[in-house]
Amino acid sequence: MLVFSLFFISCIGLLGVYSATYSEGVSPLFFKQALYLLFGWLLIFSLSMLKFRVLLEYAPIFYGINLLLLVLVPFVGKTVYGAKRWIDLGPINIQPSELMKFSLLLLSVYILPRIEKLRSKEFITFSLAFAVPSVLVLKQPDLGTATTYLVIYASSLFFLGLKLRYFIIAFVVLVISSPLLWTLLKDYQKSRILAVLDPYQDYAGSGYQLIQSVIAVGSGGLWGKGFMQGTQAHLLFLPEKHTDFIFSVIAEEMGFWLSFLFISAFFFIIWRLFSYTQKADIKEEVLFLGTFCSLLTFQVFVNFGMAMGLVPVVGMPLPFVSYGGSAILTFSLLFGVGLSIVREIKSKPINFSHG
């Protein structure tokens, strides 16, 4: 059911990209997306056959290579829409900041079980491993991706068993320091946050994407306008329709009922993967599945929230749906390792005890 649900999501996403990028013929972007997904599925099945413990031992190597690529971005990176996040490799571009999600999550699972207490050099090293890429990504600038690093950091500590009071203290500190954090944001980031409260205040500027997206989602009705019949996408009202706002295209053309199934498939995957944390008896397995579910929940919620005008536009791709090879590769790695853990849990013999 996990694989079937993900396949359903991938197919709907591919149809969405086909429609969103179609212009007097099939776009090359659609063929690229199909190849990305094909490679992603091959990666998922390959990783699911490997032992999780073997993959985990390579965590420092994955992180080191990824950090090197992230350091190279300011020097050799490609600038798109004023942000330098991609490294051009000819036919494809890779986004090291996206791949860093996998590296950080795997590194967390590798390091945290080895840490005996918070006041230790090991924990400081672990925190620095998150801080360095976060600073590099914020410089690009990419607030959305940096936020996902924070989600991985906090979630991994939660599933390690860190006491709740530490999270409450961190939340209080965050609230108290919010005025200072606000001053550190760039003007366009502040505008995007304010646009959620009243998008019509800056209709042609920061509120434009949210307004057009909400129109697209709402105009789909129960059954949708029909495949390739979405006016918001095909009349070019909706920006970033094949990436961050791909769900808006799907909702407009396929309607409420299919969108409901589409959203439900995501949360079925999250619920099903999370249910295996209750069956795992190895700390590393619980850490990986729990943190992966938290990251997936956060990213899915933010993307759907952007499309419905509920959260600021932060550039958060919808896994396996939004156009982009790096995002597909990242979540294919995560999903493949997750399936590897599930396979190992299911293969363990059941112990029966008699009272």
Write structural notes for this entry:
There is one protein chain. This protein has 355 residues and is mainly alpha-helical. The chain has one domain (2-344). It contains 15 helices and 3 strands. A 3-stranded antiparallel beta sheet has the order 1-2-3. Strand 2 (83-88) and strand 3 (93-94) form a beta hairpin. Helix 2 runs parallel beside helix 15, helix 5 runs parallel beside helix 7 and helix 5 runs antiparallel to helix 14. The model has no long low-confidence stretch (mean pLDDT 88).
Topology:
Elements: H1 2-21, H2 28-48, H3 52-56, H4 59-76, E1 77-80, E2 83-88, E3 93-94, H5 96-111, H6 121-138, H7 143-160, H8 164-176, H9 178-184, H10 187-197, H11 208-219, H12 231-234, H13 246-275, H14 283-307, H15 325-347
Antiparallel strand pairs: 1-2, 2-3
Helix pairs in contact: 1-2, 1-13, 2-15, 4-5, 5-6, 5-7, 5-14, 5-15, 6-7, 7-14, 11-13, 13-14, 14-15
Mean pLDDT over the residues: 88
Oligomeric grouping of the chains: single chain
- The CA-CA distance between the termini, in Å, is 34 Å
Low-confidence stretches: none
Q: Biggest sheet: strands side by side, in what order? A: 1-2-3
Total beta strand runs: 3
Overall helicity: 55-70%
Number of domains: 1
Task: Tell me briefly what this model is.
The chain has helices at residues 2-21, 28-48, 52-56, 59-76, 96-111, 121-138, 143-160, 164-176, 178-184, 187-197, 208-219, 231-234, 246-275, 283-307, 325-347, and strands at 77-80, 83-88, 93-94. With 355 residues, the protein is mainly alpha-helical.
Task: Looking at this protein, list some descriptive labels.
3 strands
